[in-house]
Amino acid sequence: MNKTPKTLIVYDFLQFIGGAEYVVLHMLKSSFPDAKLLVAFKNRGLKLQIPDNKIICLGYKPKYNRFAFLKVLWLFFCNRKKLKEYDCIIVHGIWAPFCLLFSSKKYFFYCHTPPRFSNDLFSYYWQHFGIFKKIALYAKSVIVNFYYNRVLAKAEFVLANSKNVQGRIKKYCKVDSQVLYPPIKIHSFQEYPKENYYISFARLEREKRIPYIIEAFQLCPEKNLLICSDGSKRKELQRLAQGCKNIKFVGEVTDEKLYCLIGKAIASIYIPIDEDFGMSPVESMALGVPVIGVNSGGLRETILHNRTGWLCEEPLDIRKLIQAIYVLTPIKAKRFKKYCLQQAEKFTNSRFDTEIQRICSI
């Protein structure tokens, strides 16, 4: 009788549930239901519908400072022997691969993106940082690129979450990969009554370019914007939008509430800098809601211009964004609904599960 392979999924940490975290947890619950998940730490306030014994936490969240990542790397290095009892290892993330640097185990690598701060966004952060942050950025980049590229090159199989990321892997890591689009959260379409607002539910971080969206709606007082998310730039963005009655922050909400708010919107707005893949546009389209995006990164693989949304050309400016808002009227958005639903079908959970199981059985 054949023994069932013991599978371990390895990821950085669980601080909040973003796109990468959703994929990791989906693999744990659906793709490999008998697997366990190894992470450096888990946010104590994070509520997951997963038994505690399926998640192995190596330590506690370190206090934030520029070199806190070294504590995370140390946790993975000290616990690398835990990998020995598993037959199949699937690694994600930027810090977690460190535990495989000196390992002879067979493993698969699902790459959400190579480290951006040390590659394509290095110059962007360098321009915005002071001298001490620049020193920390340089040191972190040297360390991460050293082990990340080596672990990626040794993998049995490398999967990229988009053609955009596949290109980055080849350019910066000199490794070939196969594209496997991530699964999306929404399983079935539900009709919602429309209301008069646009929605942004991207994380409130620098690379998501939320200030552009706020400034565009400041110049369009007759248009309403709902910002439904959280992040490190929340207070800064709330100050920027202060006094604008047409802009409302609702914070982070449950999935059910978020789907309802998206479904009632005219369109969603998602304009990050060279996004890896971008699950947010697909989630929006799965609810029949078109997306205002940018013609760069993974969004070119998901949003069909003038069919499931509107792609603003780079370099992005406020004028282009305002034009897109006025082009994507409620009437036009309604015409796009059926195409949005058709496009979202390309990114189903079952498609992902079948393909990842096939690849990891090689």
Report on the structure:
The protein has 362 residues and is of the alpha/beta class. 39% of the residues lie in helices and 12% in strands. The protein has 13 helices and 13 strands. The protein has helices at residues 19-31, 69-78, 122-128, 131-154, 163-173, 210-218, 234-240, 255-264, 279-286, 299-302, 318-327, 330-344, 349-360; strands at 7-10, 36-39, 55-57, 88-91, 107-111, 157-160, 178-179, 198-200, 225-227, 247-249, 268-269, 291-294, 309-312. Strands 3-2-1-4-5-6-7 form a 7-stranded parallel beta sheet. The chain has a 3-stranded parallel beta sheet with strand order 8-9-10, with helices on one face. A 3-stranded parallel beta sheet has the order 11-12-13, sandwiched between helices. Helix 7 (234-240) links the parallel strand 9 and strand 10. The longest helix has 24 residues, at 131-154. The protein is globular and about 60 Å long. The model has no long low-confidence stretch (mean pLDDT 94).
In short:
It contains 13 helices and 13 strands. It has helices at residues 19-31, 69-78, 122-128, 131-154, 163-173, 210-218, 234-240, 255-264, 279-286, 299-302, 318-327, 330-344, 349-360; strands at residues 7-10, 36-39, 55-57, 88-91, 107-111, 157-160, 178-179, 198-200, 225-227, 247-249, 268-269, 291-294, 309-312.
Question: Which keywords apply here?
Answer:
single chain; alpha/beta; 7-stranded parallel β-sheet; 3-stranded parallel β-sheet; 13 strands
